[in-house]
């Protein structure tokens, strides 16, 4: 990006910051992002690139100072990206011919007609001459600079090259012995994952049993005859086909799939994360002569509607 725009080498940190923001707010070719902008993945909000798409890196722009009220007093500058954590939402970082940077919100494009004029060519040449005089060695492009990194040779500063690999060759289906050999490793990985970090074991659940909902505790994964776990697990509850044993309060045990357990756990939690429990009956209570009987439990309103009396008078626990 800096080479294409002939950016002075001393602006490499501003260029890195600007390009990182562009990469963060736009879709890239990284497989893990799955066609989403990184900003959307991290925050869950739709990526907004309006503050990055208005101007290109190190392009000629007109800017105005806050005290200027007329476009006739506009000045030529170079766009060095937006100001981060400073100024307004659309504030831009402008490089002046004095090699200083100013924070401006009144920034305008240089039109094609203006760029072709002789007056603009002269103004642009004066801008570059002033910039070159003030930046001195820092005016050189990054790859030609020799003392930008505290005296170190810029030719020694480079990105590590990606390793090369031999092309993949498909040797056909694996030998049965190889497949059998690999299975214990997969089983061991599953063992470590679920013994230490299983999210369902010890969970208190309310699941259907015999036509009604009953409370129980998830005890462990259900095993097959050979000792292996029944069904592979998955971080996505919809794709999780593992089976668990649930021990109910009456001592009986039933097997339930992970997605059924997850479904009932989520259905019994309210919007604030609290678990909702069902009430079967109230026990150990009594009433005296002051309690309202069923016959006297209704009142008639002036409109003729019958409503229940809401009172606990005469009832004791």
Describe this structure in words.
- 25% of the residues lie in helices and 19% in strands.
- It has 317 residues and is an alpha+beta fold.
- The protein has 3 domains: 9-156, no CATH class; 178-267, Roll (SH3 type barrels), CATH 2.30.30; 282-317, no CATH class.
- β11 and β12 (306-308) form a beta hairpin.
- The termini are far apart.
- Mean pLDDT is 78; it is low at 144-149, 151-159, 178-183 and 185-189.
SSE order and pairing:
Blueprint lengths: L11 H14 L12 H6 L6 H4 L6 E4 L11 E8 L9 E4 L5 E4 L2 E3 L2 H5 L1 H18 L40 H22 L6 E6 L2 E10 L21 E6 L4 E5 H10 L18 E2 L10 E3 L5 E3 L6 E2 L1
Antiparallel strand pairs: 1-2, 1-5, 2-3, 3-4, 6-7, 7-8, 8-9, 10-13, 11-12
What descriptive keywords fit this protein?
317 residues, alpha+beta, 3 domains, SH3 type barrels, 7 helices, 25% helix, 13 strands, four-stranded antiparallel beta sheet
Helix/sheet category? alpha+beta
Count helical runs: 7
| Largest sheet features | 5 strands, antiparallel
What distance lies between the first and last C-alpha atoms, to the nearest angstrom? 78 Å
Count the strands? 13
Total number of domains: 3
Could you report the average pLDDT, rounded to the nearest whole number? 78
- Stretches with pLDDT under 50, minimum 5 residues: 144-149, 151-159, 178-183, 185-189
The proportion of strand residues reads 15-25%
What would the principal axes of the Cα set say about the shape? elongated
Strand order of the largest sheet: 4-3-2-1-5
| Radius of gyration using CA atoms only | 36 Å
- Percent of residues in helices comes to 10-25%
Helix and strand pattern: HHHEEEEEHHHEEEEHEEEE
């Amino acid at each position: 990006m800096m080479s294409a725009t002939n950016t002075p080498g001393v602006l490499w940190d501003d260029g890195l910051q600007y390009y990182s923001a562009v990469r963060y707010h736009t879709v890239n070719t990284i497989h893990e992002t799955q066609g989403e902008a990184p900003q959307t993945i991290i925050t869950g909000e739709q990526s907004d690139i309006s503050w990055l798409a208005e101007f290109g890196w190190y392009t000629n722009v007109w800017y105005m100072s806050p005290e200027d009220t007329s476009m006739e007093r506009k000045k030529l500058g170079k766009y060095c990206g937006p100001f981060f954590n400073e100024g307004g939402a659309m504030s831009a970082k402008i490089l002046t011919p004095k090699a200083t940077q100013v924070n401006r919100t009144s920034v305008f494009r240089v039109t094609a007609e203006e760029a072709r004029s002789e007056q603009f060519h002269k103004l642009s040449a004066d801008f570059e001459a002033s910039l070159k005089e003030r930046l001195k060695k820092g005016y050189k492009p990054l790859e030609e600079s020799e003392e930008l990194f505290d005296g170190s040779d810029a030719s020694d500063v480079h990105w590590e090259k990606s390793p090369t690999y031999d092309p993949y060759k498909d040797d056909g289906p694996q030998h049965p012995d190889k497949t059998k050999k690999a299975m214990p490793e997969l089983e061991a990985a599953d063992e470590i994952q679920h013994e230490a970090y299983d999210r369902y074991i010890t969970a208190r659940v309310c699941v259907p049993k015999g036509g009604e909902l009953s409370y129980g505790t998830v005890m462990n994964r259900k095993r097959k005859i050979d000792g292996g776990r029944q069904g592979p697990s998955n971080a996505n509850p919809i794709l999780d086909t593992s089976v668990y044993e649930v021990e109910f309060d009456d001592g009986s045990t039933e097997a339930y799939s992970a997605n059924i357990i997850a479904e009932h756990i989520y259905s019994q939690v309210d919007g604030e994360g609290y678990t909702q429990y069902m009430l079967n009956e109230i026990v150990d209570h009594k009433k005296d002569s002051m309690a309202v009987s069923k016959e006297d439990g209704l009142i008639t309103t002036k409109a003729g509607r019958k409503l229940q009396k809401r009172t606990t008078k005469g009832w004791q626990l």
